[in-house]
Amino acid sequence: MTTGIVGTAAGAAIGAAAAGIPAAVVGGVAGGVAGGLAGTAFGAGDSLGTPTEFVLPNVTEPDAAALKLQAGEEYARLAMEQPAAATAAVDAVVAAPQLADQVTAQAVAAREATLAQPGGEQVIAGLDAAAVELNHAFGPVAGMVGEALAAGRDGLAV
């Protein structure tokens, strides 16, 4: 019974990831980093399970003006050297909000489908709790990445 719920949630997540490759890449990187940190902390030859402490570097706030300028300069260079690639870059930037909306809609549908299953509320509660913890861990950096991407988009003058 529970495997059906997990299968539904996993299938929905896979479908959302397939439609939203950029989101999947970001999620995969975040998951890989978290897994690597956890694996190193608890499995690096330590048979006692004693956690290893990490000191993560401080991440500086993105300089939006500098990123916007750099993106504009790189786009101008690309437009001169490879016009088709420049057009594809602009097309991707223009399509990104619609793609994000589609991924969000698929995630909402997956959540609703999971909630409709017996035991789905427990699965969603667990996923929600994990999302809160991930947001605490990665939210600030994700926000900075979003600011940097927005500055790059603005540099393309789309």
What can you tell me about this protein's structure?
The chain is 81% helix and 0% strand. With 158 residues, it is mostly helical. It has one domain. Helix 3 packs across helix 4 (83-115), helix 3 (64-81) packs across helix 5 and helix 4 (83-115) runs antiparallel to helix 5 (120-155). The longest helix has 36 residues, at 120-155. The chain starts with a helix and ends with a helix. It comes from Rhodococcus oryzae.
Give short descriptive properties of this protein.
mainly alpha, 158 residues
Task: Please provide the ordered H/E string of secondary-structure elements.
Answer: HHHHH
Counting DSSP E segments of at least 2 residues, the number of strands comes to 0
Tell me the distance between the termini: 49 Å
Number of domains: 1
State the low-pLDDT regions, or none.
Answer: 16-21
Residue share in helix: over 70%
Overall mean pLDDT: 73
Helix count? 5
Note the overall shape.
flat
Structural class: mainly alpha
Please give the largest β-sheet: none
User: Over the alpha carbons, how many angstroms does the gyration radius reach?
Assistant: 20 Å
Strand content: under 5%
Protein name: Glycine zipper domain-containing protein
Structure summarized in a few sentences:
This is Glycine zipper domain-containing protein. With 158 residues, this protein is mainly α.
Write the layout of secondary structure elements.
Blueprint: H1 2-19, H2 21-43, H3 64-81, H4 83-115, H5 120-155
